[in-house]
């Protein structure tokens, strides 16, 4: 029963209090409509929020607490990022001039993200232009997801005003950036934004490296991150033309085989670290940041990937040539293995490192019988993740670490 004194929000609050009990009675497989109804309710409330935002801004209500504008006010009180707050305020302003769009949002015919795209278009070409085509645009919005609709709205902008579409694209281009942070808590944060054509180039370049292999347990985000690293590593190798490394192309097929020179990651590591002795210090990267001993061993495994400094006495004992795979051996390795040897993996030689089955610092020779071609993610498995890779009568066998069983049991 609802009393006349109740505000709509009190009624919504009351309904929200009923949800836990009601949800407990719903069958998991039947929750699809619930997900959709929640989305629709949020979209309809956005219409109310938009109108409130606009009226409150016009009245200057935000000044009461010293805020300099509606965006900072909404950011603080509405728990929104600066970008999201600006989007809400701008959408609210534009929808005043597009009442039919606002009504469609309030009725749930279009989603909030459709309304944002409409508002953005109005901001770029003027609301009057959008109003002329509003029927057509709203009809399209009803059948397209917001991503498709934003593309269509961009097209419309272009038709209306090619010049303003271009200047908008140029303004967007100005906002491009890429930030590669310091290593914090063992990770380097990378973030940025680029124009759509630049994004497409990056995507096209790295996507081949991101394909999942058989039984690949990586998330798509992890695969893309690995792919970016692989791509940069391989292309830096092509660009460097550094003949010092073992993959210096000799035969003409070598560049296709990934036998071109590889990037020289410079790592400072103690001999104890390289030997995998317990308690040895971590490896120091030239760019700052540390990596664990097992990572140093992986990066040092194929001498083409990295240069290790700070080994002292050890450096003289293990000569450069004893750990560098000579080009003829590399070619023989590629001819024998043809792709990553990890069972089920078929990543091609250009994406592979030469892994020493017995690590060279432990006395393993840099000879064909002690080498195996492994791709980046699988090379990591055999070093950092403790897998064992063995060659038995021309067949490769990979064995997971016993610890994995224990870990699985723990997390189960
Ligand atoms: Zn290795
Ligand atoms: Zn592999």
Structural class: alpha+beta
Uncertain segments of ≥5 residues (pLDDT<50)?
241-260
- Hetero compounds: zinc ion
Adjacency order of strands in the biggest sheet: 5-4-3-6
Beta strand count? 10
How many alpha or pi helices? Answer: 19
Give me the Rg, rounded.
30 Å
Helix content: 40-55%
Strand content: 5-15%
Ends apart, CA distance between termini:
47 Å
- Biggest pleated sheet: 4 strands, mixed
Number of domains: 2
Topology order in helix (H) and strand (E) letters = HHHHHHHHHHEEHHEHEEHEHHHEEHEEH
Shape: elongated
- Name the average pLDDT: 85
Describe this structure in words.
- This protein is α+β, with helices and mostly antiparallel strands.
- The chain folds into two domains: 35-171, no CATH class; 233-410, no CATH class.
- It contains 19 helices and ten strands.
- It has helices at residues 8-24, 32-58, 70-77, 82-96, 99-106, 112-125, 127-132, 134-143, 146-160, 162-174, 196-206, 220-240, 271-274, 293-301, 313-317, 320-323, 327-337, 376-383, 402-411, and strands at residues 177-184, 187-193, 265-268, 283-285, 290-291, 306-309, 352-356, 371-375, 388-392, 395-399.
- A four-stranded mixed sheet has the order 5-4-3-6.
- Strand 9 and strand 10 form a beta hairpin.
- Helix 2 crosses helix 4 (82-96), helix 3 crosses helix 4 (82-96) and helix 14 crosses helix 18 (376-383).
- The longest helix has 27 residues, at 32-58.
- It is elongated.
- The two termini are 47 Å apart.
- The model is unreliable at 241-260 (pLDDT under 50).
- Residues 298, 301, 355-356, 379, 382-383 line the site of one zinc ion.
């Amino acid at each position: 029963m609802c009393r006349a004194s109740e505000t709509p929000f009190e009624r919504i609050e009351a309904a929200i209090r009923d949800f836990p009990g009601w949800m407990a009675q719903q069958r998991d497989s039947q929750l699809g409509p619930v997900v959709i109804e929640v989305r629709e309710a949020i979209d309809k409330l956005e219409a109310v929020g938009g109108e409130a935002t606009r009226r409150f801004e016009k009245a200057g209500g935000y000044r009461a607490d010293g805020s300099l504008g509606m965006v900072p006010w909404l950011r603080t009180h509405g728990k929104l990022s600066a970008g999201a707050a600006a989007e809400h305020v701008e959408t609210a302003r534009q929808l005043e001039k597009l009442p039919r769009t606002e009504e469609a949002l309030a009725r749930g015919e279009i989603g909030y993200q459709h309304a944002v795209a409409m508002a953005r278009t109005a901001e770029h070409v003027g609301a009057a232009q959008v109003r002329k085509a509003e029927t057509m645009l709203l009809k399209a919005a009803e059948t397209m997801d917001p991503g498709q609709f934003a593309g269509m709205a961009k097209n419309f902008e272009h038709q209306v005003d090619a010049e303003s579409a271009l200047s908008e694209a140029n303004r967007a281009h100005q906002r491009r950036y890429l930030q590669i942070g310091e290593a914090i808590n063992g990770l380097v944060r990378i973030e940025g934004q680029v124009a759509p054509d630049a994004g497409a180039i990056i995507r096209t370049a790295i996507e081949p490296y991101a394909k999942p292999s058989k039984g690949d347990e990586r998330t798509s985000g992890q695969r893309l991150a690995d792919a970016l690293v692989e791509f940069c590593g391989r292309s830096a190798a092509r660009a460097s033309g550094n003949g010092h490394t073992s993959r210096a192309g000799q035969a003409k097929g070598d560049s296709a085989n990934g036998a071109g020179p590889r990037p020289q990651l410079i790592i400072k590591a103690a001999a104890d670290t390289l030997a995998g002795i317990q308690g040895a210090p971590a490896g120091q990267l030239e760019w700052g940041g540390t990596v664990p001993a097992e990572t140093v061993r992986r990066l040092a495994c194929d001498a083409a990937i990295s240069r290790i400094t700070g080994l002292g006495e050890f450096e003289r004992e293990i000569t450069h040539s004893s750990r560098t795979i000579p080009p003829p051996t590399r070619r023989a390795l590629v001819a024998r293995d043809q792709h990553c040897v990890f069972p089920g993996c078929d990543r091609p030689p250009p994406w592979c490192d030469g892994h020493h089955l017995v690590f060279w610092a432990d006395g393993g020779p840099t000879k064909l019988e002690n080498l195996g071609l492994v791709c980046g993610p699988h090379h990591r498995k055999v070093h950092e993740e403790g897998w064992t890779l063995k060659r038995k009568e021309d067949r490769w066998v990979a064995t997971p670490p016993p610890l994995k069983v224990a870990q699985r049991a723990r997390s189960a």
